[in-house]
Specification:
The complex is a heterodimer.
Chain A lengths: L10 E8 L6 H10 L16 E8 L2 E8 L20 E7 L3 H5 L1 H11 L5 E7 L11 H10 L3 E4 L8 H13 L27 E2 L15
Parallel strand pairs in A: 1-3, 1-4, 4-5, 5-6
Antiparallel strand pairs in A: 2-3
Chain B lengths: L5 E7 L3 H12 L4 E5 L10 E2 L1 H8 L6 E6 L12 E2 L5 E2 L3 H9 L7 E3 L2 E5 L5 E3 L4 H6 L5 H15 L16 H9 L3 H11 L9 H14 L8 E4 L4 H14 L3 E4 L3 E6 L5 E5 L6 E8 L4 H4 L23 E8 L9 H7 L22 E6 L13 E6 L11 E8 L10 H13 L16 E7 L21 E2 L13 H20 L31
The chains are: A alpha/beta, B alpha+beta.
GO molecular function, one term (chain A): GTPase activity
Protein name (chain A): Ras-domain-containing protein
Organism (chain A): Mycena belliarum
């Protein structure tokens, strides 16, 4: 009954970065998508990182990732509710050398509770392990917390690239294990996580990709 | 951002106008702080979850009053995005242009309105003929009337300004004009005046109505048969958030949920903005504030003159509007009149998505507008038209199997004390509920899961809390864009905001960086467009 997907059509997957200011969210994103590292004196608070598109093959499936950054709106906790719409994976970042950024995590989790379905895949990323000498958050403690929060866990360094690829790949792999997050044929999980393509009937309009309109709609 | 709290501009209020202006200014390179006293984005145009809506109703909001509601809870409360400013977006116009040119369009999805209907005195709803095709197909209109209607629509879609049909009639009430000049009958007059041109009352003058109608007619076909879109997740509020995100990506700083303690003049020509519970004051050369903050800033506001080409003149009526928000769990069936007829004509009709619905199951309407012309209900208004906007799951604003109804009725000429909104709107709600698809037991009337009624005043009519102890600020640069009047035509709020925002943008540039506007300005500093050309992203959208 379900229509066969076009062989080349990648699965769209939206990931979000959240966490306190200066924990290195943008750095993780730039390291992963552009293989770049901006030294600290050059990277002030986030300016200009909106989102990055990244394609990868996971478990034999082509996945088109869009990874969204907070645009600095985490600073005074003013992230827009629209930021969270349609996310399938959340990357929560703290700085292993900054206890405060770890202690702030419960508040970020409670924000997630407000805006996203509990089916959404979460990973806790302890960034800046290159600063091992000034570590303030023990690995075991963070790992236990992640388990309690039903999240994956990894420590990473955007500076040295340790654990970065792993963090993103782990989330996507877990998402692929949960078809209802991305497969329109699977039962939905509530309006917050559905992609627009699963909506009944026609009538959805994507202003940003006007050209696609002609090819949109029913695939029969 | 620097931590010295020094900005070029501080914008107060995150309504749609302010948010568009903030995005444009941040993109142009100005250092900007954007503040809202509410903990949510969108101000009077916000989209709220169900629980936030209840909280909002229980908090004093300048301009809103006379709340009543059926209850405080609903299942899946978080899955709702309820708009405080329900409106339609014409497929061509300033807001769509801004969404596309700024890149904000990519943050959200939109949905085409599926059907527009007029409520007839007889208690039936009639589809509104909005295109040649509709008119040809319609079997209820006589041939003579079809010709008259066609002649009028050709006139309205064209350059009518110098046509003899308009001579001496620019201020004639539009329905009268349609009757006398184009000999249209009452039914067609109602459909054109209220459901195509979205007149608010029988006295709306002809020229502005024709301007609106032409814009809407020219929007038809861009994204589909209907000229109007509605944004996902409550539309206006979500769009305002998109513009705020764009501003943030360009470096704007966002602070929400903090009251402004005051704006004080300093020795140098900078405004100092102090926020409650916020350590450092913000300094800036220019304040842009929505009208609801003007009593705090106490400056002489410089309101940018409306652009002469703007169809959104300040002449929009200043009376209040009664609003109803209702949530229902059965679809409406709005006379699928044209569909079976078209199907009966076989091959000629293009197959629509709806044609794929299994036989026997009528397509479920997700988005629609029902217009009640004046005097269409015996216990309704005789001086104003009511509009009902229906949005369902497809607009991502409510869970599956639920629909939100927004009813709006302007209240012209009712003096200081507006009537009880529930009394005014109940007839319209009941008439709309009576249009619900019948269940297996036809005796069961549709009862909303939730309903709420309230009044929205014209912003300047609303009492604003004056802070007498604040010193009066000398006339430092301060722009206050006019607030969106609550009684704009249903499709006009977003475009009006976009037009205002552009006027504010150019005025702000003139104040902050006049050199950028010199004809011989360096390419580096020159500002020539509201939105800079978008960078082509390397990651091609190659699929």
């Amino acid at each position: 009954m379900a229509p066969a997907a076009k062989p080349a059509a990648p699965i769209n997957c939206k990931l979000l970065l959240i966490g306190n200011s200066s924990v290195g969210k943008s750095s993780l994103l730039l390291r992963f998508s552009d293989e770049q590292w901006l030294p600290e004196d050059e990277s002030s608070a986030t300016i200009g990182v909106d989102f990055r598109v990244h394609k990868m093959d996971v478990k034999g499936k082509k996945v088109k990732l869009s990874i969204w950054d907070t645009a600095g709106q985490e600073r005074f906790r003013t992230i827009t509710s629209s930021y969270y719409r349609g996310a399938q994976g959340i990357i929560l970042v703290y700085d292993v050398s900054n206890r405060e950024s770890f202690d702030a995590l419960p508040r970020w989790y409670s924000e997630l509770e407000t805006y996203v379905s509990d089916k959404v895949v979460k990973i806790l990323v302890g960034n800046k392990v290159d600063k091992e000498f000034s570590r303030q958050v023990p690995t075991a403690e963070a790992e236990a917390f992640a388990t309690r929060m039903n999240s994956l866990f990894v420590e990473a360094s955007a500076k040295t690239a340790v654990g970065v690829k792993e963090a993103f790949t782990d989330v996507v792999e877990r998402i692929m294990d949960i078809p209802e997050l991305w497969d329109s044929a699977a039962p939905g999980v509530g309006a917050g996580t559905k992609s627009t393509t699963t909506m009944p009937g026609g009538g959805n309009v994507n202003l940003a990709e006007e050209d696609e309109q002609s090819g949109g709609g029913c695939s029969c | 951002m620097d931590d010295d709290g020094a900005f070029d501009v501080v914008v107060l209020g995150t309504g749609l106008t302010e948010s568009i202006a903030a995005a444009a200014l941040a993109k142009a390179g100005f250092k900007l702080a954007h503040i809202d006293r509410n903990p949510y984005y969108g101000a009077a145009e916000a989209s709220l979850s169900f629980d936030e809506l209840i909280q909002w109703q229980d908090t004093p909001n300048p301009g809103f009053s006379s709340f009543s509601r059926s209850g405080d809870t609903i299942e899946q409360a978080r899955a709702y995005s309820i708009s405080l400013s329900p409106s339609l977006i014409p497929s061509t116009g300033p807001l769509i242009d801004a969404l596309v040119a700024s890149g904000v369009a990519k943050y959200g999805g939109f949905r085409l309105i599926e059907r527009v209907c007029v409520y007839d005195v007889s208690g039936a709803v009639k589809p509104v003929p909005g295109s040649k095709e509709d008119i040809f197909k319609n079997k209820e209109i006589s041939l003579v009337d079809k010709r008259r209607l066609m002649r009028f629509l050709m006139f309205a879609a064209g350059e009518f300004e110098d046509k003899k049909e308009l001579e001496g009639h620019t201020n004639t009430p539009f329905p009268d004009y349609l009757k006398t000049v184009f000999s249209l009958n009452v039914q067609m007059t109602n459909a054109i005046a209220y459901a195509l041109a979205y007149c608010l009352s029988p006295t709306d003058p002809t020229l502005p109505a024709l301007h609106r109608l032409r814009r809407y007619l020219r929007s038809t076909g861009r994204y589909g048969a209907n000229p109007f879109l509605v944004g996902h997740y409550g539309s206006t509020g979500e769009i305002a958030q998109g513009f705020c995100r764009t501003a943030a990506v360009s470096g704007a700083v966002y602070i929400l949920g903090r009251e402004i303690e005051g704006v004080v003049p300093a020795s140098d020509p900078k405004h100092i903005v102090r926020l409650v519970d916020f350590p450092d004051p913000l300094s800036c050369s220019l304040i842009i504030s929505s009208a609801s903050y003007s009593s705090l800033t106490r400056a002489t506001p410089v309101v940018p003159p409306p652009s002469p080409s703007s169809p959104f003149s300040s002449s929009s009526p200043k009376y209040p509007v009664a609003r109803c928000i209702a949530i229902i769990d059965r679809p409406l069936s709005l006379g699928d009149l044209t569909v079976p007829e078209a199907a009966a004509e076989k091959e000629s009709a293009p197959t629509s998505d709806e044609a794929h619905a299994p036989p026997g199951a009528p397509p479920v309407l997700d988005t629609a507008v029902i217009v009640f012309p004046p005097s269409s209900l015996s216990d309704g208004s005789s001086t104003a038209a009511a509009t009902v906007l229906l949005t369902g799951e497809g607009t991502m604003s409510c869970p599956r199997g639920k629909w939100i109804l927004y009813i709006a009725l302007p209240l012209p000429g009712l003096g200081e004390v507006p009537p009880d909104p529930r009394t005014s709107l109940k007839p319209y709600l009941d008439a709309t509920l009576a249009l619900a698809s019948p269940t297996s037991d036809p005796g069961i009337p549709l009862k909303p899961l939730f309903s709420s009624f309230y009044i929205q005043q014209h912003p300047t009519d609303a009492p604003s809390p004056l802070r007498a102890e604040e010193p009066v600020v000398p006339a430092l640069p301060h722009l206050t864009p006019a607030s969106l009047p609550p009684v704009l035509a249903l499709p006009d709020a977003g475009d009006a905001a976009a037009v205002q925002a552009e006027a504010v943008f150019w005025e702000a540039v003139r104040i902050l960086r006049p050199s950028a506007l010199q004809p011989d300005a360096d390419e580096e500093v020159a500002i020539t467009a509201l939105w800079p050309a978008m960078e082509i992203r390397e990651e091609g959208e190659d699929d």
